[in-house]
Amino acid sequence: MNPQKALLSLLAVCLLSITVTLLTQAYWQEQSYRLQSKGNSSKCSEHLVEKEVESTQRKCKSPAVQTQSITLFVRMAATVPELRRQFYCVFLRLSVLFWPASLDKTVAVLDQENEEDHEFASTVLTHMKQHFPDRTFEVLYEPLPKDPTVLDFAKSPKSPGYNRQLYSSFFIDLYTNDDIIAWMDADSAFVSPVTNESIFNGTKVRVLGYDCTLTTKAWVQVWARTTEKALGLPFLADFMTYFPAYIYRDTFTHCREHILRRFNTSNFEEAFKKFYRQEYISPVSVVLSYAWYFERERYDWNLKLCTDLTEYNKRFPSEHIISAEHVVETLLIPQTAFHAKHAQGVREIVFSSYCLSQEAAGNDAEKCSNRTASLITNFVLFTQDVDHDVERLGPPAPPCPKNREETCLQLLERNYNQIGLEIKQKTRKLDWKNVKIVENLAKELKLQCDVLK
Ligand SMILES: *[C@@H]1O[C@H](CO)[C@@H](O)[C@H](O)[C@H]1NC(C)=O
Ligand SMILES: *[C@@H]1O[C@H](CO)[C@@H](O)[C@H](O)[C@H]1NC(C)=O
Ligand SMILES: *[C@@H]1O[C@H](CO)[C@@H](O)[C@H](O)[C@H]1NC(C)=O
Ligand SMILES: *[C@@H]1O[C@H](CO)[C@@H](O)[C@H](O)[C@H]1NC(C)=O
Ligand SMILES: *[C@@H]1O[C@H](CO)[C@@H](O)[C@H](O)[C@H]1NC(C)=O
Predict the structure, then answer these.
(1) What is the dihedral sign for C-alpha 308, 311, 316, 322?
(2) Ligand 2, pocket residues at CB < 6 Å
(3) Rounded CA separation 41/39 (Å)
(4) For the whole model, what pTM was predicted?
């Protein structure tokens, strides 16, 4: 093809993708209108997001875009200094390294009523526009619930601010039109490159769950109780075991509708008060347990069970029992994020993944000249329970069992070969410079990032 023709066809593809985007947008606007008019009196509609979306520029996406669009989602509150630090020094700093720009947009939701949140958002947007023009970044604001006792009540297990984050987890679908939400906790860190395979198995969205914490962690037993209270159906498993959690946007919508029906109300605040009061809750476990009962075929279930399957299945209605195909012995795809309040806590994992990727791409990265990254040091990515406190407790028990080491090696090798290929083909950038940029931006904001070297 001559260059002019190539340019023309690229232009045509861009125009086509813009048209498709506009049509999709129109479709979702209509959908969201329908949601509003159907739920006329419901709090869901009143909960709607402040209309003007503040955003960095949206670019014409590359033609090869997957048909399923994804939003990387994080809930923030800038009034909490520690969260501002974590946002820059942990979340942003490592997402510009490991979350591929090709997967596009990031959405941060902040508190509507706080001036500080608006100021912080405007700084973040300016930073992103200036330094990461290839990434779309949006900020949206969430109003407080109308009824203050939704968040602030006697004997609450958590602070009102924390309760707000729990409450707002049930409304994540209102902040994007993308098909899939990649849900990150504000205190999570990317530790290895996110690949398409880590999100999808074929056309299904990958879900990882774990029952082993159910016997070892008292609070997981409490989550099981509150989930059952919310859904009227048993808790499937602990889904706080991996981040980001990938969930179809409309699964949130459907889950909320289910809960409203169950509590015979159109007011989610009222329903929430009936299932979350004095005991902990894990919203991600509620939403994914919902998906198991009502949308099982849309997801690729990877459940790691410590309990015997027959025994475990006794808790479920017969049409909802877990079968062998939903159970895995170890993860089939390496983890890409861990809970971490400081990047330092996951430093070794970050460098090992980064250097293995660069090596697979045939690059001599400066940061790696002094390191010997080996696939074995990377076994930690098979850890199921990312809630395990790496900072306090050190690396968890051997994540790849002795008898499966060969398989783990093969899985890692395949993973890094794919990443290396994408780097070589320039469909993925893995640039430490991005980490440095965020460190400098954090400095401008007087946020103290720990040293990552
Ligand atoms: C929606 O709200 C309007 C005004 O409050 C009311 O007249 C109408 O009956 C409501 N419709 C439904 C379907 O609840
Ligand atoms: C992965 O998905 C992205 C966007 O969704 C797409 O552009 C890319 O071609 C996919 N990569 C591979 C190797 O399939
Ligand atoms: C994808 O799903 C198929 C069918 O359930 C399963 O056999 C396979 O192991 C899965 N692959 C990965 C990498 O998860
Ligand atoms: C739900 O609310 C309606 C109207 O208020 C009432 O008639 C009905 O009995 C309620 N159902 C349940 C299960 O509480
Ligand atoms: C490599 O190690 C040497 C000695 O341990 C040290 O002086 C040097 O700064 C290191 N280089 C990098 C890039 O970390």
Answers:
(1) positive
(2) 62, 64-66, 102-103, 196
(3) 6
(4) 0.82
